[in-house]
Amino acid sequence: MSAGWIADTRVSYDTVAGNYADVVREALDSQPFLSASVSLFADLVRAAGDGPAADVGCGPGQVTARLRGLGVDAFGIDLSPGMIDVARRDHPGVRFAVGSMTDLPLADRSVAGVLAFWSLIHVPDETVPAVLGHFHRVLRPGGPILIGFHLGDRSTLKTSGYGGHPMRVQVHRRTLGRVTQWLREAGFTVTAELAFDLEDPLPGAVVIARR
């Protein structure tokens, strides 16, 4: 798959930014596994010595804001300028910037934690190792990384969503084994795995590791 997926993802989420924000605004409060995993990540950042934490693929910023409320110096990065505009509108005072996880605009060892909350789901398999290499580069030794993703073993093309707006993004479901293997190959130590909502049409999973 060519790098055209980056442009497709950016345009798609620019198109749906406002509607997407409305859909996910209360997601953490209505899904206990998601809420608990964000709280656990905040605890792990503090246990590792505290410091800034990057929410990579932050979308409209609701998870970034939750981390701030939990006492973490979190900031958000997203590929979509439209999403960043919504995040800044909805969460004034929180730092947000446009950027790509394929060329992460952060200095080496500059963050105490990295969160990728369902933001790798549009990244093709062949690009994931390079993205995880960037996450490893910017994370301080001992710092946690949390990856949230759709559980499964297939990919589908999403052509519309969030109010019926047109989109063009591949949605990749992945197994725990595949994600943990990628993390280990990138130099991380995997510390926890969680699969949940296993009877739902779209189950979820979280993997936590440290540098």
Characterization of the model:
This protein has 211 residues and is of the alpha/beta class. The protein has a single domain, classed as Vaccinia Virus protein VP39 (Rossmann fold, 3-Layer(aba) Sandwich), CATH 3.40.50.150. Helix content is 38%, strand content 27%. The protein contains 7 helices and 9 strands; from the N terminus they run H-H-H-E-H-E-H-E-E-H-E-E-E-H-E-E. Helix 1 packs parallel to helix 5 (81-90).
Name a few traits of the molecule.
27% strand; seven-stranded mixed beta sheet; two-stranded antiparallel sheet; alpha/beta; Rossmann fold; 211 residues
Briefly summarize what is shown:
The chain has about 210 residues and is of the alpha/beta class. It has seven helices and nine strands; from the N terminus they run αααβαβαββαβββαββ. The chain has a seven-stranded mixed beta sheet, sandwiched between helices. The protein has a two-stranded antiparallel sheet with strand order 6-7.
Q: What topology does this entry show?
A:
Blueprint: H1 4-24, H2 27-30, H3 32-47, E1 52-56, H4 62-69, E2 73-78, H5 81-90, E3 96-98, E4 113-117, H6 128-138, E5 144-150, E6 155-161, E7 165-172, H7 176-185, E8 189-196, E9 204-210
Parallel strand pairs: 1-2, 1-4, 2-3, 4-5
Antiparallel strand pairs: 5-9, 6-7, 8-9
Helix pairs in contact: 1-5
